[in-house]
Automatic annotation (TrEMBL):
<keyword id="KW-0812">Transmembrane</keyword>
<protein>
    <recommendedName>
        <fullName>Pentapeptide repeat-containing protein</fullName>
    </recommendedName>
</protein>
<dbReference type="InterPro" id="IPR001646">
    <property type="entry name" value="5peptide_repeat"/>
</dbReference>
<keyword id="KW-0472">Membrane</keyword>
<feature type="transmembrane region" description="Helical">
    <location>
        <begin position="20"/>
        <end position="39"/>
    </location>
</feature>
<keyword id="KW-1133">Transmembrane helix</keyword>
<dbReference type="Pfam" id="PF00805">
    <property type="entry name" value="Pentapeptide"/>
</dbReference>
Length: 450
């Protein structure tokens, strides 16, 4: 009896627990359902709010786009454009303003509208600083001569477009894709084209001077010929052997001067090329041509013919000396010439550049008043480091002992040097009636390592 009572009691307890569980489960289910429903409603509400917001933004973009098109169209139709400067400045300001609020699709139509209106063909409209990132031009479009320098066009997709003689100088176009297009004689000078891809595209005679083409892919291009890669960065760029050598024998070959090549080495650099203009005084020897030196004071640097002076006779041989030399006669005078080193910026900025300079200089009598000074500068003109002077090389006088060879060899250029200045001068402390002579002044660039 006791055992049966216990079993009946356990059975009664289990039944109570089940009733209790079921009575608690139903509110839990209802609560969970309420929570899930509420969350779903909130998500749907947020999604609807986002859709409404996007629709509102799109309507605002459409309004801004239409207002811009109408404004510029009326300007083109109703203005005689007598003041071209203000005309193009107004269009530039309106265009840069509206571009900030438009999506890539409408930006595409801004490009097409301005081009078809004749405003983006190098006629005077400058859109430097414009942003066209992610814009896709999927043609067919004939956009020969398109003028968009110094713009941002990241992730550009250009398909079935003719861009002969287009100008993208100094633009930023990483990850650009050119497919089934013509890029003949276009300018990409100083343009960033890292990871660019060229497929079934004719890339002929384009200017890629100082461009960055790291990881660019030309393997699927139709033709790759006659490209100026001077000072370009081609690190890890991909070419077929045929493309690298030039596919068309009868047209110009590629130029790889001073460029960083795909394997990290550097292109051709002539260590004997003189970057100075008229360093040998021959340019104004028998004519009134410009002397090509900035003089301080004016007309302090003159040219003499060897056969018209008894002060100096440098006629060692015609191949070395030519017919004329420079002469200075006044105290504290200087004549300078700046050399643009930007074509060598890839070498310089990778700490792989040095220069050499030499000259024949001397003065009458025993004075040592003449000098040649080299200073290096940033692009803005700031001096990079203390100027250096050419050093005398012993036993190098010309046959009458007047002029001696001065030189500095393999001098390392600091990173970001973009200009050099060569100065001919006479020091302030010197006897009266001193004549100082300069000839065969040279400045050349070399690589520090391959």
């Amino acid at each position: 009896m006791a055992l049966n009572f216990i079993k009946k009691n356990d059975k009664h307890n289990n039944t109570n627990w089940c009733k209790l569980f079921l009575s608690a489960l139903i509110p839990c289910i209802l609560g969970i359902f309420t929570i899930v429903f509420t969350v779903q409603q909130q998500v749907l509400s947020q999604q609807q709010h986002e859709i409404d917001r996007q629709n509102q933004r799109d309507a605002q973009r459409e309004t801004a786009f239409n207002a811009y098109i109408n404004d510029i169209s009326n300007l083109l139709l109703n203005t005689n454009h007598t003041n071209k400067t203000n005309f193009f400045l107004y269009i530039r300001t309106k265009t840069l303003t509206v571009l900030r609020s438009l999506n890539p699709e409408r930006k595409k139509y801004i490009i097409l509208f301005l081009y078809e209106s004749g405003l983006l063909q190098g006629t005077g409209l400058d859109l430097s600083g414009a942003e066209f990132d992610n814009v896709e031009l999927i043609g067919p479009y004939k956009l020969d001569g398109l003028y968009l320098p110094n713009a941002s066009w990241k992730n550009a997709l250009i398909v079935n477009c003719s861009l002969k003689k287009a100008v993208f100088t100094q633009s930023r176009m990483p990850n650009a894709r050119f497919i089934n297009s013509l890029l003949e004689s276009a300018s990409f000078a100083e343009t960033i084209l890292d990871n660019a891809y060229f497929k079934e595209t004719s890339v002929v005679g384009i200017n890629c001077m100082s461009a960055s083409l790291i990881h660019a892919n030309f393997l699927d291009a139709e033709v790759v010929q006659g490209i100026d890669f001077t000072n370009a960065d081609l690190l890890y760029a991909q070419f077929t052997e045929k493309q690298w050598l030039g596919q068309r024998v009868l047209t110009n070959a590629h130029s790889f001067r001073y460029a960083r090549l795909p394997n990290g080495s550097f292109g051709d650099l002539s260590p004997t090329r003189n970057l100075l203009e008229n360093g040998d005084a021959e340019q104004k020897c028998s004519t009134v041509e410009k002397i090509n030196w900035d003089e301080n004071p004016k007309n302090c640097l003159n040219v003499i013919k060897f056969n018209k002076t008894s002060v100096v006779d440098m006629n060692i041989d015609n191949g070395t000396w030519g017919n004329c030399a420079f002469v200075m006669t006044t105290k504290s005078v200087r004549a300078s010439q700046y050399i643009d080193l930007r074509p060598y910026s890839r070498l310089i900025d990778l700490d792989n550049a040095m220069f050499s300079s030499s000259a024949f200089i001397g003065c009458n009598g025993s004075t040592n008043a003449s000098y040649v000074e080299i200073s290096t500068h940033e692009l803005n003109g700031n001096i990079m480091e203390t100027a250096v002077f050419l050093n005398h090389i012993g036993n190098t006088a010309n046959k009458n002992g007047m002029m001696h060879n001065y030189s500095i060899q393999n001098y390392r250029l600091l990173k970001y040097t973009h200009k050099a200045r060569v100065t001919l001068g006479i020091r302030s402390s010197q006897p009266k009636n001193t004549f100082c002579y300069f000839d065969n002044v040279t400045f050349s660039m070399q690589k520090r390592f391959n």
